[in-house]
């Protein structure tokens, strides 16, 4: 029985699961749960997970949600997954758990909160909230600082000084990619000071090529759309005074 | 070399680690990091963890933070830990990861936010914030509802229908215990509707007796102190009108 991945590629944890499967040659069926159409709220999807969130998987009779739990499950239950994704070594594995746990209340919370409140909210039926966006940006910037100064310490190009990526690299980098949606000058302000983070994002992208870019193409299409809308908005604003 | 646990028993994840060690006969030295005195900000503690948060452990040359990562590490690295704490079975283990991941942005975020903003803030130098408390209460109540209706489904007394507790039971119940600090009527309003949750808290307490109560005694002392202060406050308020 094939693995089924319920996902929306607009969701950063969904993308991490899909890229992991593709990079590791895991055979799976992708079922799109369109968040913009609120398909995560349907009774059918609640049969898969009562939490009404993507991603979720069904593998035979086994259902699972929460992206980190899914990544670990996939790394342990499919044959031939290279050890670097989720090392068997007790100490390395513990450090990976530490990064993944830290992620929830730091980078994830900051980045998702910032993108939602500064840019993406209206597409999901929510208002923009500059105050919440500013609060999230603070957490996001502090988190990027910690990645730069602590998690990326060491000789390797990846988290924990590793020479090859783990599920933690994939999870965190997919989160950072969500910042592609925000205004160019905001992204530059937030990411610009973190050169090692930007290099690590590029390294993770390269290490999972061509799947990384393919899976992110939906996000990058929305980025273009939002850029065009902002350009039109700015032009209108520039034009307005002369019209008044 | 003995395991060192850096903790403040006022911190719910700290208590989970200490109880786990005691119940499982793990020899450890407890080093108190007094959060009320901001000892987590000292350069000495930053040598242990740059995140400035408890709990953290040092085991020989190995340092680790994030309580779930620590619980998993302890369950895997010390001999004789019963399997039910962190089952070797792939599917059970995946479900435990799912509960623990879910916890971060749900019960943990809701309960910690509610207690901090409604009650504990001033003790840590932060103002009370009724608006933030109300928002956190909503998340907390929804999380308790999900524990009641989903995570506690099944025949056993513990999460995931298990007959014996896992590290997830310990982590989540220690979080719920933090509600002991809030006003009795608020706790009743929040916990009252969730009878299965309250039974599960009692079952987890019993399964880890006498360590659970011993480790929580600091919290219960603060509870008494806060109750006395509230009683004095209410008496003053009742007396005021006749004095005016």
From TrEMBL, chains A, B:
Similarity-based family: Belongs to the GST superfamily. Theta family.
Single GO molecular function: glutathione transferase activity
Leading EC class: transferase
InterPro entries: Glutathione-S-Trfase_C-like, Glutathione-S-Trfase_C_sf, Glutathione_S-Trfase, Glutathione_S-Trfase_N, GST_C_Theta, GST_N_Theta, GSTT1/2/3, Thioredoxin-like_sf
Top-rank lineage group of the source organism: Eukaryota
Source species: Salvia splendens
This protein's UniProt keywords: Detoxification, Transferase
PROSITE patterns tied to this protein: GST_CTER (PS50405), GST_NTER (PS50404)
Residues in GST C-terminal domain copies: 89-232
UniProt entry tagged with the keyword Iron: no
EC code: 2.5.1.18
Domain GST N-terminal as annotated: residue spans: 1-82
Record field: catalytic activity: RX + glutathione = an S-substituted glutathione + a halide anion + H(+)
A Pfam entry, by short name: GST_N
Record-given protein name: glutathione transferase
A Gene Ontology biological process term: toxin catabolic process
